[in-house]
Every structure is written in C-alpha cells, then in structure tokens.
Write a structure and sequence with these properties.
heterodimer; A: about 270 residues; Phosphorylase Kinase, domain 1; 2 domains; B: mainly alpha; Butyryl-CoA Dehydrogenase, subunit A, domain 3; 8 helices
C-alpha cells in the first residue's frame, strides 16, 4: 500500500465527498481510503445526513405565494434594469433626467406587454414540447438493453454529437450530488427539429430524462422566448419544463413535485 | 441577451433568509431589503454573470451588517435581545419536530459559520462561489464549514434542552438569560 492510500482523509476531502464535489477516479480513490477509516466514514455519514436535513429545511417556503411587497420590489428592480440596458443600447451618454424618466416609463410598459405576449404565444409551442419529452421518457426509460444510444462512458463524444445535431453547445448537468449518474443520451426527432435526450439513474434504479431542443418562436424580443418553470403532471410521468433563449428543456421522472423541482433547479443552474 | 428572471429567484432567497434568521418576518424583511438594494445597485451587476450569486452576495452583506449592528447594541448595554429568544420559541407553521430542532441548532452557530453551511448544504453552491459571496478566502470557507458541521452535529446529538417549551402560550418573555 503506498502513502497515497494510507494518508488520513482531510476535512476538505470529506467535504468534497459529502457535497458531491468529486467524481470519477478521484472519488473512487477517496472512497477506497475511506473504507480504511471508520472515524472518517461515520463523520461523512453525519455530514451527508446534515445535508439531507438542510436541503429539506423550510422547503415549503419555495411553494408559498410570494408576498406582494416583495413582488413589487422585484418589479421595480426589473424596470431599473431595463432602463439601464436601453441606455447602454442607445450608447446613451448624458441625455438628461427627462429622457431617463421617459425611458423608465416606456421600459416598464414594454415589460408588461412582453409578459402578456409570453403567456399567450409561448404556451402552445412549449406544451407540445413537453408532451414529446414525456413520450420520449415513457418509451425509453423502461428500456433494459438499449436505454441510450451512446453511453456515459463516451460522454465527450455524446455531448459533441448531440450539440452538433441540435445546433447548440450542450452541457450535461452533474446530478451526482442528488444521487443521479448519467446513463447516456440519444438523438430524437421533434416536431420542429432534432431533440436530445439525456438519461440519468440513481442507486435505486429510478430514471430521469432531460429532453432539450430548439423551440422556434416568432422573431421578437428575447423575452418572448423565456418562460418560468412549469410543472406538468397530466400524463404518465411528471415533468418540469422551461424555455430559455429559444431553447426548451424538460426534466421528467417518476418523482414527487418537490424532488423533481429540486433536480430541475440543479439542472437549470448548471446549464 | 440573457435575462434571468428576478422573480424566479425570490422563493429561494426567502427560504435561505428563513434559515439564516430563523424568523418568518425578519426573513421577508431581509429579502425586501435585498431587492431594494438590488434595485439601487443594479448597475453593479455585470450582465451575463450569475444573478442568483449576485443576489446572495447582496443579501449576505446586508445580513452581516445587521448582525454587527445588533452586536454593537448588545455590547452597548442592552443585555438580551428578546427577539433572539422568541425566534427560538416560535415554531414555523410547517415545521416538523426535526425541522424545529435543526433550526434551533442552526441559530446557535456563529453567523459566519451558519452562512457558509447554508450556502453549501441548502443552496448547493460550490466552495468557490461561497468564497466570492462571503468575500473570504477559500481556506476560511473550508475551515468555517468544518467548524459548522462539527458543531452542528454536537448540537443535534445533545439531548434537547427544552425549558422554553411551556412558555410559548403565554406570549410573555420567558426567563431571560444572557445568551453569550
């Protein structure tokens, strides 16, 4: 046994294990050393348990309606941001208080109308998208022998290939911290072009799929091409889906709303 | 241009603030202050950078200065902050016994340890992100995380001291004692 395997695990290494910040060979090496250290092992178990508890703490707040004073404060910030952006777009240097006031008012008005547009124009396209995502999940997730076309072992190739086909540089989210490992991915046809599906699986054999592809929207402001998270349950499998910069994403899996929401947020943050 | 949705960040900010302060009202006040500060400092946010991380940074700075102010008040002669005590008494509506206990233990951690632990565990942020948000070197983040996890475990393992349990009905201040 060399010194590398006998050196005691440091706190930093234990944190990295508890928080899922290592993967692949590095993780295997740490786990091998962990097996020799009962104390570190029980400490790791405690920290992982703490993580589970903390991730659950006040979870119901996430589903509460946001109090209106907070919404109001956020709206003011959004319109301040819009004003700033318009200024920089116009190359605006000093143009006076009057114009700035006017732009703020205008920005606020367009913000509101754009959001109305989002609701009416975007829903049909994205609901068709999520319907296809769920079909794809239901068809491929139970597959035993060929759940994916390209396995996680060839992740680099998989990502390059699918990026090329769907016309966007893709990233595979890392869900190790949530207990899910990448199984692989496949290319699928969608009503408006190529779609990619990534499949993940946890230790219990539960499978999640992330389905993504371009959603052509009327060429307008970019705001019409974004939606908030939506949850769809009226089918065989629940999904969270969202549209970001003209690209649709749907995360499907046989999970409770909260658990799926948490995973969808993890995916969203990484993409 | 990327325009992440500010409104979509509010639920996450509220939850984090709730865990940080242990109090529903104080938490929403903190979120409100954060959003107002974000409004006035909007130009400081670099478009295209991570909106969530920036909002957490704004909130962190506000909370840290609140805590410092409260400490100064305390040192200036106000011996016990009744709010701090009542925080421990009021059970959140949705709380399980485990959740109440966890929140109680969290509030016993020093503010800087609680912050790091919550950002890492509850918010699943990377150590580098936490270092940026709290404005501390990564080594400091890691040692605070160690101390927080070890201390939290001791608190969770300790038999629950529940002298406050009976007084929640009365609404009156319980037997006041100095916390620190």
């Amino acid at each position: 046994m060399d010194s590398q395997t006998t050196r005691q695990l440091s706190d930093d290494e234990l944190h990295a294990l508890a928080d899922g910040r290592t993967s692949g060979p590095e993780r295997f090496a740490l786990e091998a050393r962990l097996a020799l250290e009962p104390n570190a092992k029980s400490r790791l178990a405690q920290w992982q348990q703490q993580n589970l508890l903390l991730r659950d703490l006040h979870r119901s707040v996430l589903d509460e309606a946001v109090p209106s004073p907070l919404l109001e404060a956020a709206r003011q910030t959004v319109s301040a941001q819009k004003t700033t952006e318009r200024w920089s777009r116009m190359g605006g240097i000093a143009a006076g208080v009057v114009i700035s006031f006017g732009m703020g008012w205008l920005a606020n008005a367009t913000w509101q109308s754009q959001h109305r547009g989002t609701l009416t124009a975007q829903v049909p396209a994205s609901s068709e998208f999520v319907r296809q995502a769920r079909y794809a999940h239901v068809v491929y997730a139970p597959e035993v022998r060929h759940p994916v076309e390209v396995t996680a072992a060839e992740q680099v190739h998989l990502v390059q290939w699918l990026s090329k086909r769907v016309g966007k540089t893709l990233k595979v989210p890392n869900l190790t911290a949530q207990g899910y490992e990448l199984v692989g991915g496949r290319l699928l046809p969608g009503d408006t072009g190529a779609r990619a599906q990534f499949m993940f699986q946890n230790g219990a054999g539960t499978r999640l799929t992330l389905y993504l592809g371009a959603i052509p929207a009327p060429a307008q402001d970019e705001v019409t091409q974004e939606t908030a998270f939506r949850f769809a349950t009226d089918g065989a499998v629940p999904s969270f889906y969202w549209v970001d910069q003209g690209f649709g994403y749907a995360l499907s899996g046989p999970l409770q709303r909260d658990a799926l929401m948490q995973l969808a947020q993890a995916v969203y943050q990484q993409l | 241009m990327d325009r992440p949705d500010l409104l979509a960040q509010i639920p996450g900010l509220r939850r984090y603030a709730r865990a940080l302060t242990g109090n529903t009202w104080a938490a929403d006040d903190l979120v409100q202050d954060t959003l107002e500060r974000a409004c006035s400092k909007w130009r400081l946010w670099i478009i295209g950078s991570d909106l969530r991380a920036w909002l957490f940074t704004v909130m962190h700075n506000l909370y840290a200065s609140d805590v410092r102010r409260a400490l100064r008040r305390q040192q200036a002669g106000v011996s016990v902050d009744v709010d701090t005590l009542t925080n421990e008494l009021i059970a959140p509506e949705d709380a399980t016994a485990l959740g109440i206990d966890l929140q109680r233990c969290l509030l016993q951690l020093p503010e800087e340890q609680r912050t790091v632990l919550l950002l890492v565990s509850m918010e699943d942020m990377s150590y580098e992100e936490v270092a940026r948000i709290t404005g501390s070197p990564i080594g400091t983040v890691m040692s605070r995380l160690s101390r927080a996890r070890i201390r939290l475990q001791q608190l969770l393992d300790a038999p629950a001291v529940a002298p406050h349990a009976e007084v929640t009905q009365s609404g009156a201040a319980p037997v006041l004692r100095r916390l620190k």
